[in-house]
Amino acid sequence: MGLTKTEIFTFEQNQLSVLLKAIAHPARIAILQQIISANACICGDLVEELGLAQATISQHLKELKNAGIIQGAIDGVKVCYCIEPKTWKLLDQLFGDFMRSYVDPKGCC
Amino acid sequence: MGLTKTEIFTFEQNQLSVLLKAIAHPARIAILQQIISANACICGDLVEELGLAQATISQHLKELKNAGIIQGAIDGVKVCYCIEPKTWKLLDQLFGDFMRSYVDPKGCC
DNA sequence: TGATCTAATCGTATTATTGCGATATAATTA
DNA sequence: TAATTATATCGCAATAATACGATTAGATCA
Question: Which residue is nearest to nucleotide D15 (CA to C1')?
Fold first, then answer.
């Protein structure tokens, strides 16, 4: 049917998948790296840095914002984006727990 | 156009996004958790555990396999799936580096 | 106020994803 | 060999995602 059955899964499974899906795109990874490396924030510089149209960058920023991974502050004519620390920590926690739940082989198929 | 411009991004950006995209679905997270908790491997048990059709589970397994996150070994009539340790480590490394590149606020917008 | 600059949104074309019934494949058992 | 069991694949319908030109909205500057 083309519709994910979210009601079947746990809150945490859905929560982690939403956060990961927001990051799981090379353009959004590049945007986040740019935001992080610029220490503070950026805005339309991203359009120049990456080779994508302004509308496309804006859309990616919106998705990252919807997922709560970044936040945008209006600064005059520009908009300054930066990481949302709370969500970043949450993601680190959720994904860390998930990854650490697997402890090596010691016998498999 | 609806086609991700992979040629614009670095190998690592694309690599990480492929791995994350494979995991960024609640059903696939549930499948991985099931595989991990069963220590060894599983196969069609997943169809019973999760509430999805056999064709759907098989498709999700295929995607996880294509990304290199799991491997399947034929065991008679059944197929035994388990985590691919190398890819798991790679993901842990790539994502860990990515997450750690952000070091708290100390002044933002 | 009018011009300018920045960013968001709309509309649209293209492609990908999700889910499942039906069918095919492959190994095992009777 | 025929029946059974376990998976994979095909085909399809519905929905989501990607990208971008064009337009809109909002703030700043002359």
Answer: A2
Domain of B92, CATH number, reads 1.10.10.10
State how far residue B66 is from chain A, nearest Cα, in angstroms.
16
Q: What is the pLDDT of residues A60-77, one digit of tens each?
A: 999 999 999 999 999 889
Q: Contact A99/B85, CB-based, under 8 Å?
A: no
pLDDT tens, residue by residue, B34-78: 999 997 678 789 999 999 999 999 999 999 999 999 999 998 899
CA-based nearest residue to A64, from A38, A42, A96, A97: A42
Q: Which nucleotides of D are covered by protein (CB under 7 A)?
A: 5-11, 13-22, 26-28
Residue A103 lies in a domain: no
Write out the DSSP string of A82-107: EE-HHHHHHHHHHHHHHHHT----SS
User: Is A5 a domain residue?
Assistant: no
In chain A, the number of structural domains is 1
Please name every residue paired with B50 in a beta bridge, in sequence order, or none if there are none. none
- The domain in which residue A63 lies consists of 10-96
* Local structure of A7: helix, strand or coil: helix
